[in-house]
Amino acid sequence: MKSELIEKYNLLREKYPFKNKYYHLNSIRNFINSYDKINVSNDKIEAFELLQAYLDYATNNEIETNIQCRQAFYLYIQPIGILYKRNMKFIFLIQPSSIILITFIINIFILFFKNDVTYFLILNLIGLIIYILVKSFLKKDNVFCYNF
Predict the structure, then answer these.
(1) Does the pTM exceed 0.70?
(2) Fewer CB atoms < 10 Å away: N or C end of the chain?
């Protein structure tokens, strides 16, 4: 079963290298690499079917917008992530770009309501630390995570 998933994944990566942007391929790689660690047989079958369905979807369809990317995430990646979270304590990691955006928005509010630069610096330091931690988690192959 896992070999089928690996074969489809590798074919997708080789045949369509431009599909790296919107296709959640790093999350799929993490799911496939951890597939054997699912202990509940029903969950293993369901994970296989969802992974196979997503790989077929990604091979046969074009995802060109953020809206289509979100739809694919909520239809395939999130349910797979919930299965893996239940079986192996997988975690959802927010995208580093989202951390920057959230930090920026909070900074704007702080500057409007509190003119104290101390809060601004503390928030930026916290945002930077979270950003570095998330980036380091995403680069590790043995981390049980998925993201949007």
Answers:
(1) no
(2) N
